[in-house]
Design a protein that fits this description.
This protein is α/β, with parallel strands linked by helices and 263 residues long. It has helices at residues 28-36, 62-75, 90-100, 125-131, 159-166, 172-181, 189-192, 218-227, 243-246, 248-262, and strands at 13-17, 40-44, 82-87, 105-111, 141-143, 154-156, 185-186, 208-213, 232-236. It holds the Pfam family Abhydrolase_6.
């Protein structure tokens, strides 16, 4: 894959990383808007997501899961810097890319996303599940591949959960698209609770921006910001969790402002 040098070019490169169960398809509105303005957009399918051919049971580790993304980052030339945009669980992926390729990242944008802290586990599992317990997940299905005494190994978001918690501000067409395309996602609890995956030297050197969506779980977003303050916080007050589908123009405007400031 060939990339042009964008250091002195007004065109920006946005790499979009989806959340759990989703794929590159969820960015179709935002991708179209950014590309219509002349920017480069890469929307990725992580392993076992979207049209990626792997099954969830074949993706055994966090490294396996983000491998397509890390390959794309490795293919960028040394003088090419991209804006990484992670949505929800996609915050994990962009954090790993910021750690491994800090010189290739102009900024990491966390769109109502998991935002880990350097030198700590990716997810504080007790805090995470306390704030978003299993019973709040409605008809979502958890698979306990290592036995029910442990944490779940994968998750499949249910249609009721999608409709009531994620897609409540989206069109019926987008909801229909989601129910047709959602796939199970690995949770990688063992990897995510390890310390030392992110360092201050690499991950901590990259600018971070958090995008708050006012109709999503605001308490969880605010906790993430307070626990690990980013360089900037912006808000889209009327947006729900799936902001790229319900408010693509607002999100596009936010990303353009971020790119102009940090690129």
């Amino acid at each position: 894959m060939q990339w042009e040098n964008n250091n002195n070019n007004k065109k920006k490169h946005f790499i979009l990383v989806h959340g759990a169960g989703h794929g590159a398809w969820c960015w179709y509105k935002l991708s179209s808007l950014l590309e219509s303005l002349g920017h480069h957009v890469t929307a990725l399918d992580l392993a076992s997501c979207g049209v990626n051919p792997k099954r969830v049971d074949e993706v055994r580790s966090l490294d396996d899961y983000v491998h397509p993304f890390m390959e794309a980052m490795a293919s960028l030339p040394p003088d090419h810097r991209a804006i990484l945009v992670g949505h929800s669980f996609g915050g994990i992926g962009i954090s790993l890319a910021m750690e491994r390729f800090p010189e290739k990242v102009a900024a990491g944008v966390y769109v109502t996303a998991i935002m880990p802290k350097a030198c700590e586990p990716m997810i504080n599992s007790m805090e995470f599940f306390k704030r978003d317990p299993f019973e709040s997940m409605l008809d979502t299905t958890f698979n306990f591949g290592d036995g029910r005494e442990g944490l779940p190994t994968s998750v499949l978001l249910g249609p009721e959960y999608l409709a009531k918690k994620l897609y409540q501000c989206c069109s019926s067409e987008d909801m229909k698209l989601a129910t047709a395309l959602i796939r199970p996602t690995g949770l990688f609890a063992e990897d995510l609770t390890k310390e030392g995956l992110l360092s201050e030297e690499n991950f901590g050197s990259v600018k971070r921006v958090f995008v708050v969506c006012g109709q999503d779980d605001v308490d969880l977003q605010r906790w993430s910001i307070q626990h690990n303050p980013p360089d900037e916080v912006v808000a889209i007050d009327t947006a729900n969790h799936m902001v790229m589908l319900s408010h693509p123009r607002n999100l596009c405007d936010c990303l353009l402002e971020i790119a102009d400031k940090y690129h």
